[in-house]
Amino acid sequence: KRIFLKHFGKGVVLRNLYEIGREENGREIKEAIDYCIQGMAHGMTKFLGRPIQTKEELKEYCYHVAGRIGSGFLNKIVELRDKDETGKPIILMGDWAEKFGEYLQETNMAKNPYPDYKEGRRFLPDEWRRRDVAFETMMDTYERGGNPEDARKKMLEKILDFTEKNFRDSVEYIKSIPPHLSGYRVFCLIPLITAQKTLEHLRASGAEKVFSGDESATKIQYGLKNILEFSYNIACSEEGKNADDWLSYYKNYP
């Protein structure tokens, strides 16, 4: 509660939560929020003050801080608020929702190694680091005059390959959203496409620019306007009839 008050003040977020709590199913939605926040706190606390060592630990961290948001909160809201054509609650796949949340979280880690390091966070697993190059040397070489370019290149390849493995399941999650829930499809399509284009841009930019914190390498240069418009059009035009075909193609040819 203290974290919510400090972060949101008495603004629209807390007012909305108050109103949701008074609605039908409001208690269940608040319980879902509580469940996810406890999971996030658990994941953050477990790795607070020590670097992530293995890809399994990275996956665990991303599950707690992002994967559970998909399965435990977003899916729960859909189940409590939306119905299918027969009037039954819509149940979305929890595993796919978790992969989607993890995919977005991992993308953030892939594009932010420099600011994370400067602020004392180490998300890139230590097992991916070349043993003859210290993590600090790999990150601070621009200031120390070293040149472990190969270590940075391999680290970027590892995090990109690791992240991209969740792409197809993330697409399947959005395909599983009924077309009449076009607003939720748009809500998910925008970060999905933005993340995929970001990973593509990181790979093209190369490790030297990414690990130096060069914003031209870590942010897609054409902005989000086209992605916003495309996501809206593909999900909403003709009642979303083209969306499933497009998503099937996109899954195989991103």
Fill in the keyword field for this structure.
mainly alpha, 254 residues
Order of helices and strands: HHHHHHHHHHHHHH
Q: Kindly name the structural category.
A: mainly alpha
Radius of gyration over all CA atoms, rounded: 20 Å
Number of distinct beta strands = 0
Helix content: over 70%
Structure annotation, total helices: 14
Estimate the global geometry from the Cα principal axes: globular
Q: Whole-Å distance between the termini?
A: 41 Å
Low-confidence stretches: none
Strand content of the residues, in percent? under 5%
Largest sheet: none
Mean pLDDT: 90
Describe this structure in words.
By secondary structure, the chain is mainly α. Helix content is 71%, strand content 0%. It is built from 14 helices and no strands. Helix 5 (94-111) packs parallel to helix 10 (182-205). It is globular, with a radius of gyration of 20 Å. The model has no long low-confidence stretch (mean pLDDT 90).
